[in-house]
Specification:
Layout (H helix, E strand, L loop, with lengths): L1 H18 L3 H9 L12 H11 L3 H10 L2 H10 L7 H10 L3 H10 L7 H8 L5 H17 L5 H14 L5 H14 L4 H15 L4 H22 L1
Helix pairs in contact: 1-3, 1-4, 3-5, 4-5, 5-7, 7-9, 8-9, 9-11, 10-11, 10-12, 11-13, 12-13
Length: 230
């Protein structure tokens, strides 16, 4: 009975997404560099509105993910029950990441709320796939913003992962690494100091990717300084 109910809810959700699809939103996928061959074209605002109507359900999220539809997988970020997410599920979903938007939204809106997040940062940082490796740093950046109980020491230890991945020249990996470094650098005075020192070191690197990450972070820190003193 539960599986029948979940299947019915999946079909209901897909119908809601189809009704909210527009040509403009479909075109925006390409505009924002989102490679999603199986997509309706629904804005994030409408996806979130649909999620509120559907409510939280682990079974629904599982069914939505299995459809492979871009917007259905986006819905998972908002309808899944974080406390019921397992490491096995996180690994399986991460393997399916095929664009930055799914990767970042799942990490920022769901995975960072699970007790398995920190373990996945370390595991995924060694992954070969571009979006699987990006997931480690999208998740680290999300934890820097949302995990208020984590100690500075935990983030300081993660800088090793940042430095190790800085030589990866793939676009979405290096942008994820920069995001994590920049976000950690605004968390506390100790992390600000450590992250800026790393950014300066990377900016002076002979490796193009590391140099880009370092300069990108330093530029962001300068903007943050200006806002803080204004």
């Amino acid at each position: 009975m539960a599986s029948i109910r979940a299947s019915t809810e999946v079909q209901r959700a897909l119908g809601m997404l189809k009704r909210k699809s527009t040509a403009k939103d479909f075109a925006n996928l390409k505009r924002f560099g989102i490679d999603a061959p199986k997509a309706f074209g629904v804005s994030m605002g409408n996806i979130q509105a649909i999620a509120k109507k559907l409510g939280r359900s682990h079974e629904l999220a599982d069914g939505l993910w299995a459809t492979g539809w871009y917007e259905a997988r986006m819905l998972c970020s908002f309808v899944e029950e974080p406390e019921r997410v397992t490491p096995t599920q996180m690994e399986a979903w991460c393997r399916d990441f095929d664009n930055w938007a799914i990767c970042d939204t799942l990490c920022f809106k769901l995975f960072d709320q699970t007790p398995h997040a920190w373990a996945m940062v370390k595991k995924w940082s060694a992954r070969k796939g571009e979006f699987q490796k990006r997931a480690a740093f999208a998740l680290l950046a999300s934890l820097a913003g949302h995990d208020k109980s984590a100690s500075d020491e935990r983030f300081l230890r993660s800088l090793v992962l940042v430095e190790r991945a800085a030589s990866d020249e793939r676009n979405f990996v290096k942008k994820g690494v920069s995001w994590a470094l920049r976000r950690m650098g605004t968390r506390s005075p100790a992390l600000t100091k450590a992250c800026r020192e790393m950014a300066e070191r990377l900016a002076a690197s002979k490796e193009p990717s590391a140099r880009w990450i370092g300069k990108d972070a330093l530029r962001d820190f300068a903007i943050w300084d200006a806002r803080s003193t204004s």
